[in-house]
């Protein structure tokens, strides 16, 4: 892995193209470096790894609208001033939920590479240059050349897909534009939505033929693309194309290009779901063929005492934070660097050093409530769960001693929840196995009322009283002598593919034993009964999983729970056209600066998110529309 990163960094330097910033609007002037860049195999490989650079940069979740605009986490800096949520820098993506997106200087601008966006058009051009020049070096073995070409094609397809998912119809850059091209040739126009999706799928199909099924030498090649990854991405692309945002969306029926051509399909095509289902099954089969399976806990470090319940929580969490395990279908190399944003201060040592733990990644109450009860149904459906009194107070008891500090006063809603709640979310009174203490008979715990959540420094605090525990490795120990147990970022897990397949099957033919079986694989892993069992025994709506609409709701919620905080929910909610409703209610939390139990446990509104119809797709910067009159603005912008 270190070898790959070193080569990657070299490739980034070698492959720098010093041309202008508007890659679709001006003639590039980078040809002077081509002769040296493809003079031999080593130089060509470095150029290819330069094409990987922006893919690796996506491991920074602050660049990912699936994370920053999902409603799962908010960033509370400068919360006294309700008009700002940080700037357009590292925390600026969280402003997407506050209605602060604009077309003059867009947030997450991937068209131009500003405001936490990346220069994807430049990188696509870089991939094309590689493909057009890889025959120059004479010392590249034919097998190696095929693999490199396949990797470059995958990367080009994925960068197009990322832009397509953000902007809808986009130009297709399948070839690098010649340096002597006319201004009209340079000014590319958007293609129809389906032609964009079809191009991405066709390019992925071309790539996967010559990709290896799996990485054989992880020490040297971890992070490179495989055939299995390409199949998994194809499944995601086709499911996205079949989803309501892009499949016959009436909101975009009048969206036309400069030549009057309709850019969105006029009507939904149900057959797209079958195509997606077939791709999901192919991806699952390929993953299983190379050894993909549910994660089994790999103990790291010294464990003083660990009960079966604690082991279960670490297993659920470890599927994400224990890098390169068999459940992870696609993992990116760079290490997740924001544990200090997601972690509470659970020791006096950490609390005494505000620079060790910021705790800014704050989970709204609404997100904490999507997790099921211990009976495996939504808490507002469980006929045995006291939903009405969930904000009342209750003391930790023996039955919950491995989840909640015994005799500690906390909210009643923290009791009788499913294991994924306790493995994913931390709250006042929650036990915290790790941070230097691996004894679940008397572990560290979150003492938020005492001020660990909200020190007087109001730039480094948690605004809601809930933390994204899932993002924190139990071996990380912040404090005066901080040690972080880092891990690579996961893009696709096997359980995510299971739920994607279940979703497609339900959309094709409605509820069936096969659909239930794929959902139940996830639920079994999470320690829950099957769908039919849980709903028939515990839900106020026992027939819900027997209808297509009801099972769709179950699958959507299951996916949000299983993949919580993994940078997926924001994209799912967009393609389902559900993000607007999720962000319609205020973000609430406890009164975190109050130092009494009764005062702390008063719900307060942190802020009201703002997300309208126009926000489902991102605006193109207005300057781009002026420099390229062949482009049309995203609808409603």
Automatic annotation (TrEMBL):
Family: Belongs to the SusD family.
Keywords, in A-Z order: Cell outer membrane, Membrane, Signal
GO cellular component terms listed in the entry, alphabetical order: cell outer membrane
SusD-like N-terminal domain span: 121-233
Source organism of this protein record: Niastella vici
Record's subcellular location: Cell outer membrane
First and last residue of the signal peptide: none
Glycoprotein listed as a keyword: no
Protein name according to UniProt: Starch-binding protein
Record domain RagB/SusD: where: 358-637
Source taxonomy: Bacteria, Pseudomonadati, Bacteroidota, Chitinophagia, Chitinophagales
Highest taxon above the source species: Bacteria
